[in-house]
Design goal:
Blueprint: H1 2-26, E1 32-36, H2 40-45, H3 60-67, E2 71-76, H4 87-99, E3 103-108, H5 131-149, E4 153-156, H6 175-192, E5 197-203, H7 208-214, E6 222-226, H8 229-232, H9 236-250, E7 253-259, H10 289-304, E8 309-314
Parallel strand pairs: 1-2, 1-8, 2-3, 3-4, 4-5, 5-6, 6-7, 7-8
Amino acid sequence: MKIGVKLLSLLSILITFSCSKEEASNNNQEFIKAADMSMLPLIESEGSTYYNANNIAEDALRTLKNAGCNTIRIRLWHTPTVNQSGFNEVKTFAQRVKNNGMKVWLTVHYSDTWADPGNQEKPNAWSGLTFNQLKAQFENYTATIVNEIQPDIFQIGNEINSGFIFPEGNLATNESQFLSLLTSASSVIRANNPTTKIMLHFAGIDGSTWFFSKMSAIDYDYIGLSYYPMWHGTDINLLQQTMTTLGQTHNKKLLVAETSYPFTLGWNDWTNNIIGLTNQLHPSYPASPEGQKAFFQQIKNTVKNTPNGLGFCYWGTEWIAFRGTESTNGSSYENQALWDFNHQALPALSVFN
């Protein structure tokens, strides 16, 4: 009897140890609470000041850090024709983020301008090259980014539903070349910094199953999905179901890589806003400070309740009307930022905590 008790006790200890070890292994990555702050260097350079919830002027990064944000997402353009998102700016900004104790998530557009499902224009510097020449330039550029900026997360392209670096990397017309570029980017990142996590980013829910089935041979870590109710539907349950299926099918961690919501349908400059009508809203969340916070909290809860959910990122966090109330080239996002029209921190920032 005593031997049996001892054996049972020993078995219980072994099972507990095994479960604890497995739990630690499954949860050894910190939950990512990110904010895209790509416009901040430009906005600051033009004289705008941000205020915390106590209406005290404060570095926006510090406000985010104090709120619980642990990662900053930064856009990188190859050779932009405008004064933003170029290599030197991003490198300096990334170091500032690290100095503030946060991780750097780099979204590399492989373009001189905005890249998204409808626009994947290759850098002008790569025009006129053969595919092999372009691929060599692509690999060298990727290696330079990894070595000089050393991001914690390297997102290969931005919303690459239809591929990137058109026409060579067009998924519909040059699938093998698109996959070849992704494969080489992944290899370059792994070779130059094995600790950098690699993300592939798809905009929306519809089509994501098909897209990531195409990615089965690519070496990457994270699946990123954009989710905006206006463009991707109001069924947040479908978002969670899709994330769950993708995570199980591909054994990857998942993030909502972009999301946002308005705190008002008003405007603060004369630049046309992305959202300004009630029929563009999710019916459960009004365009108010509390509605914005509740929507953002729901996104966080959705990711946390997804088995392989690893985090989220708020997009347009910093994009206040920084060029004044009469500007026609200011912000199309000032009513979705996480600072209000007086540049004061909004309640939604508490969701990072």
